[in-house]
Amino acid sequence: MATADKNEKVPEYATKSADSDFINDVIAAFSEAETEIAERNSKITERDEYIYGDRLEKSLDIPIGHDFTPVNWLRRTIEIHKNMFMSRGFNIVSTYDSQDPENAADEKEKERVKIENKKQKEFAEARKRLVDSIIEDNGGSSLWSMLAENAGAVGDAAVKTYYDEDDKKFVISPIESIDNIRVLWARDDFRKTQAVAFVYQITLQEAISDYGVPANTPTSPLGSPLVFRSNTQMPSSNYSQQKMVTVIEVTGTLDGWGSTNGKPNKVIPGHENKFNALIVGNKKVRLIDEEKKMPRYYIFPNRRERRRPWGVSDITSAAIDINLTYIETLSDWRTHASKVNFQKYKAFGFGPDVQLPKNEARKVQIIPLAEGQDMQRLDQGDSNQLDFRAQLDEMKEQFVRETGISRVLFDDPSVTLNSNQALLTSMKPTSDIAEAKKQLWSPILVELFMDALETISQYDKNVKDLIGDSFSLKVMWPSIMQKEDPVFQQMLLNRFNANTMSLQSYLEAQGESKEEIDRIRDELSDPVTAAILGRIVNVMAQNLIAPPQPQGPEVKTNITLRGDLTPQQEANHATKLGIQDGPFPATMGPQGNQGMLAYENADNQGFTTGAYPNQQPVTMGPDGKPVGMQANDTNTGQQAPAQLTTPANGQEGQGVMSQPGSGATTTSPQGALNQQQQAAGN
């Protein structure tokens, strides 16, 4: 509670006197707006009677005897605007400020950021579930559809919110009679409120039984809740003189008044605090000064006009006049057409006591007439149907333009649309109005549900843990296209396939819940349902009918990676002084593939013959001499292969030129060695 400065003197009053002064100041403050309220309520009553009452019929100027066919377009207009705006409801989603783990200083901080993001995500989902439960507990989409219709008809809708401690639920109570709402404005643009009061009347008996007020409680005449019997200024427009007790519930601040522990007290201007007070007659029944626990009122305007305190109905005065003119023109046309289509005759020579012949429909008749009697048809011309039809069509067009309603929404059979794009284009005036209403209601809805979470957190510790400074709520409105529309479905699929929409958002756009993802997760654990989801049922069936056979023993492959060091580096490494910092120089021997090849050639010295790369292996016997080799070749200085016995006796061109399976001729050294190996049975 805001208190006065310690250097300022604040008057002190007895409790009874303070309550009385507080009640009088509340009534006086809201009585100052009576002119504004009377003007608003007059428009509300007028719109209500035209749309839902019989004022449209009573306002018609139709002579007695004329055709009377009342056509009320106003109610259908309200229904169309309501359906375009709120027929599919809305979603409240919770957002949070996530941190980028890649910006973390180290791995430990990175893991902490990931855990914090996961926690924030779970809290956001919990907040969304809580908001959804609040909506469902208060009638779901039907509540908001009713509010949208009320606002469209009379210009504004209102709700009262509070926490019911007995039922342990948050209540959103619609105020169907917006006439009872009064506001003290905080600014001259009529967009910020200082206090909101709900003022209504009950009988004295109900006030005594429900609120315990005394029998001598001041009363007010029915229809004038802020005009008491003690006041000599009685309005001339009272509906009744029945004695009623005024009930005022006010939420906000009042100039010069604060509260402490549920008791009002006067404070220095500028030090007021918010409160919620319930006043019945001249008794203060309740006062709540804990801001997060007090009931609140929210006003939802239908459409706003510049520097106007209240919303505007979808039904304008021009729309009402056009509807009246249409009915009167239709009456004139039908009356004139009746005279033309049902013709009249002149009868000559018929006395007052003579019965006139009667015409029988759809029959050829011969009417006997006496001498001096005659009948002649009166010529009354045509019904001027072209002129009347043109007038009626023009009035239809003007009504559509005035109310922003597409003719296709009036189920006009003359409108032919060959594509969804043409349908959307024809509905654009109506959809534009619906979009404007969504933009107007979104911040109010966010404020309402943010306050709801704050209020519930005062009674539920678990909810209190969900409330923090790093989250916000956002209103998601469905597309103007129905979800059964192929264009709407294709648009969602394109976004989903382009990876610009999450699976959960895709399901929410379809009207599904997050539980659908949990079902998919469960089905993936079952082989059959997993195969269906993965579109691989044919593969699964093939494996069941003809399972794959094993292809032999499992082949195990080992790969060893080697890094070579020079001998000096190995020696330096052994001294633990570093590879390049040891006592041995860093210059020695070849390395890499060429070095390895050089070392291998040195090891194979004497075991190969010929020049690289056409070298041939030399096999040494137990005596250290090459097997099957003769003396040194005089040309190469190397041992020549021994002369082997062949079927051709060593003569070229005769006998078998190669041994079976050897791949070499018998005249080559390798062929001779192969022959010797085969002869030995190897």
| Average pLDDT for all residues | 79
Strand element count: 19
Largest sheet: 6 strands, antiparallel
So how many helices?
A: 20
Radius of gyration: 50 Å
Shape category: flat
Helix-and-strand structural type: alpha+beta
Helical content band: 25-40%
User: In angstroms, what separates the terminal alpha carbons?
Assistant: 109 Å
Approximate strand percentage = 5-15%
Low-confidence stretches: 1-14, 230-238, 630-637, 642-650, 653-659
Structural notes for this entry:
By secondary structure, the chain is of the alpha+beta class. Helix content is 40%, strand content 15%. The protein has 20 helices and 19 strands. Strands 4, 5, 6, 7, 10 and 11 form a six-stranded antiparallel sheet that branches. It has a three-stranded antiparallel sheet with strand order 3-2-12. Strands 1-15 form a two-stranded antiparallel ribbon. The radius of gyration is 50 Å and the shape is flat. Residues 1-14, 230-238, 630-637, 642-650 and 653-659 have low confidence and may be disordered.
Write the layout of secondary structure elements.
Elements: H1 15-31, H2 34-52, H3 55-58, H4 73-86, E1 91-96, H5 107-137, H6 141-154, E2 156-164, E3 169-175, E4 181-185, E5 193-202, H7 204-211, E6 220-221, E7 243-252, E8 257-260, E9 263-266, E10 275-280, E11 283-288, E12 296-301, H8 317-341, E13 345-348, E14 374-377, H9 385-403, H10 420-426, H11 428-457, H12 461-466, E15 471-476, H13 486-497, H14 503-509, H15 515-524, H16 527-533, H17 537-545, H18 567-574, H19 592-603, E16 608-609, E17 616-617, E18 629-632, E19 639-641, H20 669-679
Antiparallel strand pairs: 1-15, 2-3, 2-12, 4-5, 5-7, 6-7, 7-10, 8-9, 10-11, 13-14, 16-17, 18-19
